[in-house]
Design goal:
Distance between the termini: 73 Å
CATH topology: TATA-Binding Protein
Number of domains: 1
Oligomer: single chain
Helix content: 40-55%
Structural class: alpha+beta
Strand content: 25-35%
Number of helices: 11
Strand order of the largest sheet: 2-3-4-5-1-6
CATH superfamily: TT1751-like domain
Order of helices and strands: HEHEHEHEEHHEEHEHEHEEHH
Number of strands: 11
Amino acid sequence: MKFLSTMLYILSFIVTISSANEDILLYKVANKDHKITANTIANGLITNGYTVAKNQDMNGPYKKQFSKTTFDSYNLMSVYHHDTSVALIPKYAKSGIFTPFSVAVYQRKGDDNLYLALLSAKAQEHIIKEHDSLFTKLEALNKKTIMKILPTAKVASLGYDAIKTDKPLFTKYSFKIADGDAMDAREELLMLMTEEMKPSGFVVANYIDFNAVLKDEKKDDYLFYDAYSLCKLKIIYELSKTKPEAGAFAPCTMVIYHKKGSNKTQIVSLNIDNLTSTLALKDKTLLKLLEKAQNDMQTIIEDSAE
């Protein structure tokens, strides 16, 4: 019997390891009394040198628009670490899709645990097809900071593997625009995109003029570098029912920038294949919803840039 128990333990351990999803870092902390809140985490991040650009309560909008929610709390944060972002963006302009990155903080009804989810360095590197120690250093800092804020937190497993995909995980749009015309073209582009997004259900949850941040650090490579946190409530609501960790992708950051001397404005945004592969989505209704959202955004960008 002792041998059998040992074998069952080993098999259980192997199953747990094999079902780990390395793309999402997931933590849980006992919170039966609900004393730990999203504000607890946001304030802790700020204290430890992060910028929390947005700490959005999603549970209120869930109740208002859909009349129900399965959560006691569900928050989406847009966060970045100043030093890391200032070092990464001049090297890889496309890395701005993680400035800010998303952190989901949630607690289901009837669950005594609060959860926190964010993307791993491995996932970020895989998405933009770049390997840099800055990503792993940021992940190490994220882990250290989370444990400082939540000393009793434990690493949790999602219980499923990501699905491999060969599809591109981000899209870059490039438009020929003379440097001298770039600022005026930017204003027109943003106005048209904003008008187009509303009917499609997209919301600009937050905006960061990251070029101002770069200039403060004496980095003056861009005419502009704008980061927009985009959210579509219907999508995150449907995803969070079964995959609340999907908040590690939401809101998605889209960057619009123009490097001096390039004579071109570029837009970089995440693709839905990040969610479908990382979250191992198979629900056909959800997949159609995500595909339509990406097609809508592609149309908005292309039509606005004509």
